[in-house]
């Protein structure tokens, strides 16, 4: 059994992190500047999150749109991984380049654009564990 009970639990954790990021003036604004659509496909449990940084956001206060679940958007970049890899990544425990080389994360599309986003999302490495604790999931925080 992985970190997440099911897809709903995944969206409650990683999904909410993405929802917070899209409204953060430092993180969301930098993601928006990338001007691409990024889709993350997860397994164990199955989940899909799509970030639309190409079009004007539809939600007030957001710098980009984030969709949880299937969408008709065509991604510029697709990243596939187990949900547990995502959980470890948001703790700052996964080196993206190494994970790509080991095929723990399989990416298609312009990979350099994703690598350029790494500095923008680094603040989430502190936000994610704090958010888990805030939600009553302190047992999920990686040491």
Give an overview of the whole structure:
The protein is an alpha+beta fold and 143 residues long. The protein has one domain (7-132): 2-Layer Sandwich (Nonspecific Lipid-transfer Protein, Chain A), CATH 3.30.1050.10. 42% of the residues lie in helices and 19% in strands. The protein contains 6 helices and 5 strands; from the N terminus they run H-H-E-E-E-E-H-H-E-H-H. The chain has helices at 7-23, 27-34, 83-89, 96-101, 111-121, 124-134; strands at 37-43, 47-52, 65-68, 77-82, 105-108. It has a 5-stranded mixed β-sheet with strand order 3-2-1-4-5. A hairpin with a 3-residue loop joins strand 1 (37-43) and strand 2 (47-52). The mean pLDDT is 96.
Radius of gyration: 14 Å
Q: Count up the domains.
A: 1
Q: Unreliable runs, pLDDT <50, ≥5 residues?
A: none
Number of strands: 5
**CATH topology descriptor:** Nonspecific Lipid-transfer Protein, Chain A
Major sheet: arrangement of strands: 3-2-1-4-5
**Tally of helical segments:** 6
In which range does the helix fraction lie?
Answer: 40-55%
> What is the strand content?
15-25%
User: How does the major sheet shape up?
Assistant: 5 strands, mixed
């Amino acid at each position: 059994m992985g970190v997440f009970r099911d897809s709903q639990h995944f969206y409650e954790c990683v999904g909410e992190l993405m929802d917070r990021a899209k409204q953060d003036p430092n993180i969301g604004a930098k993601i928006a500047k990338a001007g691409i659509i990024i889709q993350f496909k997860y397994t164990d449990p199955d989940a899909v999150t799509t970030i639309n940084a190409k079009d004007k956001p539809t939600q007030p206060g957001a710098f980009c749109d984030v969709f949880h679940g299937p969408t008709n958007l065509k991604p510029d970049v697709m990243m596939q991984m187990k949900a547990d890899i995502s959980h470890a990544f948001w703790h700052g425990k996964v080196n993206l380049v190494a994970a790509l080389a080991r095929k723990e994360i399989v990416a298609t599309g312009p990979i350099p654009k994703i690598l350029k986003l790494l500095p923008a999302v680094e603040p989430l490495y502190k936000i994610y564990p704090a958010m888990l604790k805030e939600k009553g999931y302190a047992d999920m925080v990686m040491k």
